[in-house]
Hints:
Elements: E1 9-11, E2 14-16, E3 22-27, E4 34-41, H1 44-59, H2 67-83, H3 85-96, H4 100-120, E5 127-129, E6 137-144, E7 147-151, H5 157-170, E8 174-178, H6 185-188, H7 191-197, E9 203-205, H8 210-218, E10 224-228, H9 231-243, E11 248-252, E12 257-261, H10 267-279, E13 289-295, H11 299-315, H12 335-351, E14 353-356, E15 371-374, H13 381-384, E16 391-397, H14 400-408, E17 415-419, H15 423-432, E18 437-440, E19 459-460, H16 465-470, E20 473-480, H17 492-524
Parallel strand pairs: 7-8, 7-10, 8-9, 10-11, 12-13, 12-17, 13-16, 15-16, 17-18
Antiparallel strand pairs: 1-2, 3-4, 5-6, 6-20, 11-19, 14-15
Ligand TXE binds at residues 151-155, 178, 180-181, 209-210, 213-214, 217, 228-230, 233, 236-237, 252-254, 286, 340, 386, 388.
InterPro entries: Ald_DH/histidinol_DH, Ald_DH_C, Ald_DH_CS_GLU, Ald_DH_N, Aldehyde_DH_dom
Protein name: aldehyde dehydrogenase (NAD(+))
Enzyme class: oxidoreductase
Amino acid sequence: MASTFETRIFINNEYVEAKSKDVFTIHSPADGTLISDQVHSAGEQDIDAAVDAAQKAFKGSWGRQDPIERAKAMFKFADLIREKAQDLARLDTLAMGSAISTQTMGYRIAADLFTYYAGLADKIHGEAIYPTSTGPYKIVQREPIGVCAGIGAWNVSSILFAWKVAPALAAGNTSIFKPSEKAPLGVLALGPMIKECFPPGTINIVNGAGKTGALLASHMQIRQIAFTGSTATGRKIQEYAAKSNLKRVSLELGGKSPSIIFEDADVDLAAAKTAESTLMNTGQICAMASRVYIHETIADDFILRLKKAFDAVDQRNAIGDPLAETTEVGPLADQAQFDRVLSFLEIGKTDGELVIGGARRGQTGLFVQPTVFKNVARDSRIAKEEVFGPVITVQVFQTEEEAIKLANDTVYGLSACLYTKSIARALRVSREIETGSIAINDWYFPSLGAPFGGVKQSGYGREGGMEGLNDYLQTKTIQIKEVAVLPNKRSRADCQRNQHQYYLVMKSILRSTFDGNVRKRRASVGGQLVS
Ligand code: TXE
């Protein structure tokens, strides 16, 4: 297939061929056709060139720009992304198979993220700490960090790009973004829009796989790196940062999110929301609720309704060609992800009881059936590891304490769902759940103004909201000592002249005082000089 899209890398507002001469290949997961075998992969010299461009923009045209001008550029960029959302989405859908409706929503959210952070660009204030008994006056300035890098996973390149680049730019930093090698084309196509809105070097996009990512994470001039992907790669990123320049790191590493459905829940709602979270982006969403814990009295009813919800998607022909506008569920991202999910299906069949799905769907493309296992052994890999596909496990519980214990029995801590009609119970249980986000009577979906991120081995750092901006700012504290200030600005010579005049004045005062005293004493001793 001829290239009808950009495959080079984007540095200093120009598309350039990678000096590394390396290229990689992308096949359509929907039907196996070749999308491109000429996607350029950035090597060491290319990353150095991107860092140089970003450094110059940071020290000049972008970093020194008036914040209100930065905001205007970002607002304009947001509008351009919004206008072209579907065209950009098409490129990611071609590469990684997610439904075009889902990926279009991704670019609209990315546009909104730029709008949101543009609004904050001129509202970055510091604080003043007044003199107290423990110290002098201090001003705390919040400053940009420098050249920042972002590395994205493949599930929604658009949102991951905006989460990392928009707050970085609003804070006055410049950015280098590496989309996943499985879905680089949409973000790469932003080049002309970037050029229309920003000075050269402000945003640079470099393609490539792990080797390119490692170059970014190890670079001595990059001051901050934000990563979304697997826990295993997250550990490496942290290691590269530690071994290079101790750059700041933030990690979003997916999860194994629990969903607790209590006996007083609206079971229809719980089933509908669970189906939605399982099928959205074909289950390739980090916050997907993949471990369901349900009260034993409503488990059978829930599974029945869940099956109905999956069947309804099938009946309206919403699983299939990801480029069709009516499609809601496409194939998995690539052969490796497909093989990984199928291997989990086999594990589930051995370690649990298959109740829905359990196999590939059709013979063309990398489609799998939505799948549910119940009564899976607690230590089974399918109960512990992130599958990243439309696969869930269902386990029953009897008491609230038991449900909390089961939900927290994981190394991950990204998000959780609670289904109950009791707000008191929802808030009580929320306090006990070890995650960065919790949805009550819904599945968790990040929003612009709220921080999103994990605890435990789901990572650290937050994206979205003011917290997301703070990750791209560092404080500088300026101490001020109070000193006596002369009323007017005077030169040293002026001061010396003043000192001399002061001396003369004092001398004449002292002399007149002395003379006066002498006269007084003369008078008192009958005109005799006594001293
Ligand atoms: O992730 P990787 P993959 C999970 C999910 C999935 C698994 C693998 O469980 O099955 O991760 O997905 C770059 N130094 N999530 O293979 O390998 C890589 O090029 C620097 C959860 O995509 O971690 C890509 O850009 N960078 C998740 C990015 O890291 C490296 C979403 C992610 O790749 C690198 C996606 C290295 N050594 C997958 N090796 C979520 N949290 O949403 C790879 N990369």
